[in-house]
Amino acid sequence: IPVDRFDLVIFGGTGDLARRKILPGLYRRFCAGQMPDGARIIGAARSDLDRGAFQDMVRDAITEFGTGAPCEGATLDDFLETLDYMRVDARGEDGWDALKDMLRDDSDVVRAFYFSVGPGLFGDIAARLQSHGLATEDSRVVVEKPFGRDLGSARALNADLAQHFREDQIYRIDHYLGKETVQNLMAVRFGNVLFEPLWNAQFVDHIQITVAETVSVEGRGAYYDKSGAMRDMVQNHLMQLLCLIAMEPPSRFDPDAVRDEKLKVIRALAPVEPHHIVRGQYEAGGGVASYRDHAENPKSFTESFIALRCHIENWRWAGVPFYLRTGKRMKARMSEITVVFKPTRHSIFDIGEGEDVHSNMLHIRLQPNEGMTLDVTIKEPGPGGMRLVTVPLDMTFSEALGPEAEDVPDAYERLIMDVIRGNQTLFMRGDEVEAAWAWTDPIIAGWEARADVPKPYEPGSSGPEDALMLMHRDGRRWREIK
Ligand code: BG6
To answer: Known catalytic residue: 237?
Structure first.
């Protein structure tokens, strides 16, 4: 679906995120014919570049980081023609008036400002957009994570932005919400009659959410060491997955209806007991340096892995544990949600000693190999009497939907286009972010107060042994990471 014409200004236009994700993503949308004639992208940064040098930089970035099907028809040169550049000093007055002159004064042209910079600059940029008259009644601002590092700093950022922009102009990115399969969670839950009646404490034993990565923190050690898995992944991405899995059905698929329901989930989260959290840090192995080497901090106590058990204190989920885990340098890249249902309330079959009680499980694979598997119990074929066996009812989206399912826009592409469309459904609202920090802050404060030391784990493993114990103690098992 084509979008309106736009002027998109990217602050931090020469930075890492712009080069890796934003600009290659825009190029893909251009190739897909979604960028209308007259759409313009303006890089703004401190570097002393001219338009030609910026275009060269973007050409290199697309060559290096571009993904997806090759662009047919429209050439890279055509895309580069949509680009411009302005040298701007976020903390001074240079460049702002000239940037304003570049923007079109036309109410049919959407005006959006992408803050692809550290949160320390959000307030400065927002203020200058106002004082130099670049912001209009309808212009939009897009802000990246990390949105603060605790409740206090997130509140301060929200307050800074709120001085200059209304909430409906602010788009806080959590790129997990832009992933196709993450949105699919809502389609699966609320588009089928099968699941929702069972989606509660009466039928669900527990839910697992795993986001395992094989990458290390090499190259990002300085940022990561101040953040750790809790701030980098749990407070945002895993919380968003938890919200989508656990929320009540919104009355309609509209931004505030969806975000109201997500917020209720976060607010209903109970504080986490210290013995329900396992922190880990990867050691050296397999030819890769240890976390501490990557962080260049031999004494670092920052976690590169976390597993925790939490509870949502509401009618639907009373007593149902949610187990979350995420880590770097793990055995495989696997993001998956598993809903483990309770066994049937009475078994009419004899279950032999040592045989497993069969439970249905729904595995939702977010990446890679996107799809869903439902474990179903059937009779084991053969003459051996009524013995039960569990078999997978499996659907891989790319097989079910054909090649189109493979060529979907990546998260950034989709989210940027949603900004232009003015659709905030897949963006975090200020109160959501604050509520998420309000839940994570005491957990982090607890570690700091106890000087908690993360458990070492072998790279290429499933994390520290204690993480397995977290579930074993409850008589449950993690899904294998593979
Ligand atoms: C980012 C984190 O937000 O998400 C990274 O800062 C992490 O540490 C990344 O690797 C994971 O995203 P994806 O899309 O690769 O699952």
So the answer is: yes
